[in-house]
Design brief:
The protein is α/β, with parallel strands linked by helices. Helix content is 40%, strand content 18%. Strands 5-6-4-1-7-9-10-8 form an eight-stranded mixed β-sheet, sandwiched between helices. A two-stranded antiparallel sheet has the order 2-3.
Length: 261
């Protein structure tokens, strides 16, 4: 089975917090450079790429020497404000070093619900793609509240995939894909190589988040795939620590779990 990403023209890549830090201790320049390099390789093949990157809160936590995610809203927002600046600056510098322009867009759920705002976001993203710019999206944690929250960046990535009619949503995580059970608790768990997005059985298989700094979990990825499928987009859930995972996927390798629309 070859990767469903091979024929994709417009790709949305979501990277989780745990894949941007070294041992969950600090934002790692080498790791970010790896992602930037792989995205540049995708662009070199003529593909359009939008990046949805977590990491603002975790980066702020690390800058403030916090080893646990705060529970107070004001502390979370402070971490996001600090971390988003560092995250954006690092991405911009890495892309600029290889002559690729990058842009930052921070969103809340309200932005995509409001028809005018939704159209403005769509228009901006399409224009950035036409200019060859890599748009880097994240939830605007500083202003978000329970009423206008996406909940996690898997959901944000899926909604953006629908908005711009993306072909493939690639969700990179700290698990090798969807298993029939939680592999950390069940030694008989098997990796699901391919399934149909939206199959109710998938939600029963999904477990909890694998790290202490991330938000969401496998269930959010399964629901994101279901959402993305509503506009005809396929989803791949893959282990972000797999060597050259994005490059290998576009070259046809079968990696992770493929959820077909």
């Amino acid at each position: 089975m070859s990767s469903i990403i091979q024929k994709a023209k417009r790709i949305i890549v979501k990277i989780g917090s745990s894949l941007l830090t070294k041992n969950n201790i600090r934002l790692d320049d080498v790791i970010l450079e790896k992602w930037v390099s792989q995205i540049s390789e995708l662009k070199a093949t003529g593909r359009e790429v939008i990046l949805v990157s977590s990491g603002a809160i975790s980066t702020g936590m690390l800058d403030l020497s916090l080893d646990k995610r705060p529970t107070k809203i004001n502390e979370l927002k402070a971490c996001a404000a600090i971390g988003q600046m560092r995250l954006a600056q690092t991405y911009e510098a890495k892309f600029r070093a290889i002559n690729i322009r990058a842009a930052q867009i921070l969103l809340t759920q309200s932005d995509l619900i409001n028809p005018k705002n939704r159209f403005d976001i769509y228009s901006t993203l399409i224009t950035l793609l036409e200019f060859g710019v890599v748009a880097i999206l994240n939830e605007n944690d500083v202003v978000v509240n329970n009423e206008n929250r996406f909940g996690d960046n898997d959901t944000l990535a899926a909604q953006i995939t629908n908005l711009i009619e993306g072909d493939i949503l690639v969700i990179l995580t700290d698990q090798k894909g969807l298993y029939t059970a939680d592999p950390r608790k069940n030694s008989n768990a098997r990796l699901v190589r391919e399934a149909v997005a939206g199959d109710p059985l998938l939600e029963k298989m999904a477990g909890d988040s694998g790290t202490s700094i991330g938000r969401g979990g496998m269930i959010s990825k399964i629901l994101a795939a279901k959402y993305a499928a509503s506009s005809g987009a396929h989803t791949i859930i893959a282990w972000g620590n797999e060597e050259a995972v994005l490059t290998r996927l576009v070259n046809g390798e079968d990696i992770g779990t493929q959820l077909i629309a």
